[in-house]
Amino acid sequence: MIDTLFNAGQGLMGGIWPGTVWPVIWTLIKIVCVVAPLMGCVAYLTLWERKAIGFTQIRLGPNRVGPFGLLQPIADALKLLTKEIIIPTAASKGLFVLGPIMTIMPALVAWVVIPFGPDVALANINAGLLFLMAVTSLEVYGVIIAGWASNSKYAFLGAMRASAQMVSYEIAMGFCLVVVLMVSASLNMTDIVMSQAKGMGVGYGMNFLSWNWLPLLPIFVVYFISGLAETNRHPFDVVEGESEIVAGHMVEYSGMSFAMFFLAEYANMWLVAILAVILFLGGWLPPFEFLSFIPGWIWLGAKTFVVVTMFLWVRATFPRFRYDQIMRLGWKIFIPVTLVWLVVVGAWMQTSYNIWN
After folding, report:
1. Please, what is the angle between helix 255-280 and helix 93-109, to 10°?
2. What's the predicted TM-score (pTM) here?
3. Where does the sequence pass through the membrane (predicted)?
4. Sequential DSSP letters for 46-99
5. Residue 192 has pLDDT above 60, yes or no
6. Is the link from the previous residue into 67 a cis peptide, with omega within 30 of 0?
7. Is residue 166 within 8 Å of residue 230, measured between CB atoms?
8. Which of 54, 160, 331, 353: CA 20 to 30 A from 185?
9. pLDDT of 282 over the 70 cut
10. DSSP secondary-structure letter at 173?
11. CA–CA separation, 312 vs 67, rounded Å?
12. 27-78 confidence digits (pLDDT tens)
C-alpha cells in the first residue's frame, strides 16, 4: 500500500517537479506521520502517569482542565511555551542551547528504524539494530553538555551522575541486544519480529510461547530494568535527586528548554517500550492465532502501552535507590548476568536442542 501511494504521488508530481523532488517530499510526509503521533503520545503519557499514580494512591489525579482532565497536557504545553527562557550570565550560551537539542534529538531520530508492521518503517535498513544503538548512545552527550554549560556545581554533579549511570546500563542493554541478534540472525528490525513467528507455540496456535521473552527471560528482565535506569526513571532517578542536587543537569533551564529534557525522557520511555515489544514480545504478532484478524499495528500499540504502564507501576511501588546501589546493580550483577546468558545461549544454539533454527 505504501509503495502504491509513493508511485501515485510520483506520477502526479512528475509533471510538476523533477523526479528527485517527490522522494524528498514523501520522506518528509512519513517523518510527520511518525513524529506527530509520537509527540501526542509523549504529551498524554504525562497525563496517564499522573492518573495511574493517582489510582495507585487512591486519588483522582488531574481532573480540572477539560473533561476528565484530558486537556491537561495541552495546558501544560501552553504554559511552558509562554514561559521565559533564561540563560545564566556565566553560562556558555552556545552549548547551553545545544544541550536540550542533543538530548531530544536521538530520542526522535531512533524512530527512523522502528517498524510498525512488516516492512512499514521510515527506513527499513538491514543494520537497524546497530543504527539504533549508535544513535541512542549520543544522548549522554546532551546531558554532559547541559551540565557543563550551565556553569553550576549542582548541574555539573547531576550531569556526571547521569552520564555514569547511562553508560553503565547501556553496556548491559547492549549485551541484551547482542543476545537477540544471535537468536534472530539479523540486525533488521522486521526480521527480528518475523523470527518470532515460527516455533512450536505457533504450531499450537499459542504464538506468545514462541516469542523471545520465554527462552530469553533473564535477558528480558535485565533489558526492562536497564531501560528504567537508561531513561532515568524511578527508582533510578537520582539524576534529579531533589534532596541532594535540586534537579540535576537541568536545574538552570526554564521554559521550553526545560521541557525538552522531559520530552526526551518520555519519548525514550516509548522507545524502550516499543523496543521491548519488538525484540521480546513479538512486535505486531497476535498472542493467539485466532486473534490474527486484529490489525498488527493495534497489537503493537497495545503491547507498547502495557510495557509503558509497567514503567509507571514501578514508580508508584518502589523507593528510590542510593547511587552506589544503582552502580553496583549495573556493574556487578547485570553485566555478568548478560555475559553468562550470552555464553549459555551461544552454547545452546550449537546443540541439537536449538529452538531458533
Report:
1. 30
2. 0.91
3. 20-47, 95-117, 129-150, 171-190, 210-229, 266-285, 297-317, 329-349
4. HHHHHHHHHHHTTS--S-SSSGGGTTHHHHHHHHHHHS-----TTS-HHHHHHH
5. yes
6. no
7. yes
8. 331
9. yes
10. H
11. 23
12. 888 888 889 999 999 999 999 999 999 998 888 888 888 888 899 999 988 9
Instruction: Name the burial class of residue 101, with classes exposed (0-12), middle (13-18) and buried (19+) by CB atoms within 10 angstroms of its CB.
Output: middle
Distance CA 324, CA 301 (A): 36
288, amino acid identity = F
- Cα(325)–Cα(248) distance, integer angstroms: 18
Lowest mean pLDDT among 24-28, 79-83, 264-268: 24-28
What is the C-alpha separation between 226 and 155, in angstroms, rounded?
Answer: 24
Cα–Cα distance for residue pair 38/44, rounded to 1 Å: 10
Distance in angstroms (rounded) separating the CA atoms of residues 207 and 290? 10
**16 Rama class: left (phi>0) / alpha (psi -120 to 50) / beta:** alpha
Nearest residue to 149 (alpha-carbon basis) of 259, 252, 256? 252
Amino acid at 243: S
Residue 282's SS3 state is: coil
* Band of residue 351 on the pLDDT scale cut at 50, 70, 90: confident
Give me the amino acid identity at 269.
M
Split at pLDDT 50, 70, 90, the class of 12 is low
The answer to whether 35 and 104 are in contact (CB under 8 A) is no
